[in-house]
From TrEMBL, chains A, B:
<dbReference type="Pfam" id="PF12833">
    <property type="entry name" value="HTH_18"/>
</dbReference>
<feature type="domain" description="HTH araC/xylS-type">
    <location>
        <begin position="194"/>
        <end position="292"/>
    </location>
</feature>
<keyword id="KW-0238">DNA-binding</keyword>
<dbReference type="InterPro" id="IPR037923">
    <property type="entry name" value="HTH-like"/>
</dbReference>
<keyword id="KW-0804">Transcription</keyword>
<protein>
    <submittedName>
        <fullName>AraC family transcriptional regulator</fullName>
    </submittedName>
</protein>
<dbReference type="GO" id="GO:0043565">
    <property type="term" value="F:sequence-specific DNA binding"/>
</dbReference>
<keyword id="KW-0805">Transcription regulation</keyword>
<dbReference type="InterPro" id="IPR018060">
    <property type="entry name" value="HTH_AraC"/>
</dbReference>
<dbReference type="GO" id="GO:0003700">
    <property type="term" value="F:DNA-binding transcription factor activity"/>
</dbReference>
<dbReference type="InterPro" id="IPR020449">
    <property type="entry name" value="Tscrpt_reg_AraC-type_HTH"/>
</dbReference>
<dbReference type="InterPro" id="IPR009057">
    <property type="entry name" value="Homeodomain-like_sf"/>
</dbReference>
Length: 313, 313
């Protein structure tokens, strides 16, 4: 059995969607450059993909790879919905050899809640290549909505189509999780982790000591360090440094405060330690960073003149 | 009045969401590295952003820029939901000087339905910085769902949070469109355009002549050329070339067919014209393209060994 993994932050983009009433043309092999999700409306659907012959029943779903040839392996049959879409990054095909349960460990998505995390920290969703969704009519209804959007296009219909696709993916992924894991509630420690991240986010500019954190959460610091590391993959100290340096970068870019003042404002012991930490995380010194940004700015890069995109730098 | 434009294919990523019952801490200025959407649950909310003092009522929404300082400009007040999120690409801030109606021309999203289009062709959504959504309780309910996902995290909750945010954005954008444009139905010619794109997608490998297209759509070819150009921004001929070259790239990568055979299969007049067209669109010759891909493959780049990502090359 094959599965697909999908980055939770993928740009899913619907290219086209239709209901297809099977006709003799379906006996001719076809392929298209996008992923294609097929869902049977009226059974049966006799479809061959590569060497594999399927007889699909009502509600069955099949996900095709880009350029994968498919056609009816015998005449006749009912109808199916299809949606073609692109995904950035691409879906990954995972073969049956892998351990599905370990794939489905979804807690690591938690690292994405850190203020300093980026797209590649996103968790992955797993869906089978061939499946029958338990919420069959919700899926069929979602296809119905998509077809209507195509037939009577209104403002922002493309955006709505993409949201429909995201919903189809979500339903299929949740189904698989339900089947494989008896308990899809996440462990209670994740709540403590959340609280911890919130406290760090709110107090990183003050002196954030082990004792003060222990007091606020009423948990041993060692335990908090462990769960933070477990869910985020980094240490509390590194995260605090990341938060401070993130703020420092903003202050260097958008204010004229001196490096000394910024070090002081962010509760660094001394400016030297601030510069050292900055260099460790960013690869250049604070004043270099400021110079570099000023140079880019004076070169007239318009996207840098607004405060709209600071976390990109 | 300020507006934000959001790329319809932005990766919207929820960082955190809460209901905040206003307390004296809110008198202290705060800022965070992400966008923040605030929605008033219980009025009033006295909030100052920069030099601007607002008194917000129930249902009012306010969108804050990354690092934008905000705080209560007087004590007291009710509660508000907030969600912090990142967006890739960033939101763009548009000032009141711009012509909103021309911004709201959303038909150009249609170019994104071409098989050969990429992310930057996506349409943009426009939402105001300060607004009161007409579907107030649907928005508040969406916040409620997000808070519940945070408080009782279940598998794939992060993905669901992002879908909730996308919904909040959608509602706000649709509202503005409704207000500014009396008719959000797209013109009937877009249906003809859709049919035309479908026909081109299905028949680009055969000989696709002006006469055959005219016959299938029962419209003058000149008219079809005009609407195709209007919605897609390119000519029918260029699109047909793009489709053929897209397929050619796949055949060059994944099969061992000769350049001659591929030219023939894709109905090019002769191999020379095929090579010329390929070079014009891709910047290198078909055989160069094949060599380059083989080199990458033998260098062991694992993401190239599966047929999962062909349209990236």
């Amino acid at each position: 059995m094959d599965y697909f993994s999908i980055n939770g932050l993928s740009r899913l983009d619907v290219k086209w969607s239709r209901l297809y009433n099977i006709d003799p043309n379906f006996l001719i092999p076809r392929a298209n450059p996008h992923y294609e999700l097929i869902m049977v409306a009226d059974s049966p659907v006799f479809i061959q993909v590569g060497q594999e012959k399927y007889t699909l029943n009502g509600g069955d779903c099949l996900l095709l790879l880009p350029w994968e040839e498919h056609f009816a392996w015998k005449p006749g049959g009912g109808s199916f919905f299809w949606v073609q879409f692109s995904s950035d990054p691409s879906l990954e095909l995972i073969d049956a050899g892998d351990n599905l349960t370990s794939l489905l460990k979804i807690c690591h998505t938690s690292s994405n809640f850190l203020r300093t995390s980026t797209n590649e920290h996103a968790g992955k969703l797993i869906i089978p290549r061939l499946y029958t969704p338990s919420r069959r009519y919700e899926c069929l209804h979602t296809f119905e909505i998509m077809i209507n959007e195509f037939n009577k296009p209104k403002g922002y219909y493309h955006y709505r189509l993409n949201r429909c696709l995201a919903k189809l993916i979500e339903i299929s992924a949740e189904d698989l999780l339900d089947k494989v894991m008896s308990d899809i509630n996440l462990p209670a420690s994740i709540i403590t982790y959340q609280r911890l991240v919130e406290i760090l986010n709110e107090s990183y500019m003050l002196e954030c000591t082990a004792a003060s954190i222990e007091r606020m959460l009423d948990r041993k610091y060692e335990y908090l360090c462990n769960i933070f590391k477990k869910y985020s993959g980094i240490t509390i100290n590194l995260y605090l440094q990341q938060l401070r340096i993130q703020r420092a970068k903003y202050l260097l870019r958008e204010t004229e405060k001196s490096v000394q003042d910024i070090a002081f404002e962010l509760s660094f012991e001394n400016p030297l330690y601030f510069s050292k930490t900055f260099k460790k995380l960013e690869g250049l010194s604070p004043s270099h960073y400021r110079d570099k940004f000023q140079t880019l700015l004076s070169a007239g890069n318009p996207s840098l003149t607004k405060a709209t995109a600071p976390n990109l730098y």
